[in-house]
Design a protein that fits this description.
Blueprint lengths: L1 H38 L1 H4 L8 H20 L3 H13 L7 H11 L9 E7 L2 E10 L5 E6 L7 E6 L4 E3 L4 H9 L5 H10 L3
Antiparallel strand pairs: 1-2, 1-5, 2-3, 3-4
């Protein structure tokens, strides 16, 4: 009973960590569309009555603003401002840095070296885990996620001989975990062909 409760609880928390950012994003988008819809009413009155102009034009304007902000933060000044906002306000929100880094890794940001996938030797078996940090003496802090919720699990400090980094993307490792290990044979094959 206790094991079932723990599984249900960790699965619920894992699902919440996935759904909450998506929900907040959709909620923010919906509020943005409603706010902009008031400003586009004069333009919409010029369109045919059957055309869903108000919502569509408001959505396009919100997406255009997002595009402009995305372009600005790629500039030196914009990047500095984004960093200042993150350090001053956003990083004080519990879990913000973790979710930001995970989102960037899922999106394919190769500059981040957090949560690097690895096969680790644990109790005579190989398990899929993530390298969180490396000690000066060569040991690793390893996070081994629970199946199928990749954001809950256990943390281990392991000798480097028992840790086999994988040259795969973070997203590929998460995909394997969320599919109850389906695709692990490809990870093992990649590990075995890795040059030592």
């Amino acid at each position: 009973m206790k094991r079932t409760f723990k599984f249900l609880f960790s699965s619920t928390i894992g699902g919440l960590l996935v759904i909450a950012p998506l929900y907040l994003l959709l909620l923010l988008l919906a509020h943005g569309i409603m706010a902009v819809a008031e400003f586009v009413k004069p333009i919409v009155s010029l369109l045919p009555g059957w055309f869903p102009g108000e919502t569509l034009i408001a959505l396009l304007l919100v997406l255009l603003v997002c595009l402009c902000i995305g372009i600005v933060v790629r500039t030196t000044l914009g990047s500095a401002f984004q960093t200042w906002i993150e350090k001053r306000f956003l990083e004080r929100i519990p879990g913000y840095s973790l979710l930001r880094n995970l989102t960037r890794q899922v999106a394919g940001d190769k500059t981040l070296d957090v949560w690097r996938p690895a096969m680790v030797e644990l109790e005579g078996a190989l398990v899929l885990g993530f390298i969180i940090e490396e000690f000066e003496d060569g040991r690793y802090t390893i996070f081994v996620p629970e199946i199928p919720t990749p954001l809950t699990g256990a943390v281990f400090v392991m000798e480097n001989a028992r840790v086999h980094p994988l040259d795969i993307s973070f997203a590929a490792a998460i995909k394997t975990i969320s599919r109850w290990g389906e695709g692990t044979k490809d990870l093992i094959a990649a590990m075995n062909t890795r040059p030592v």
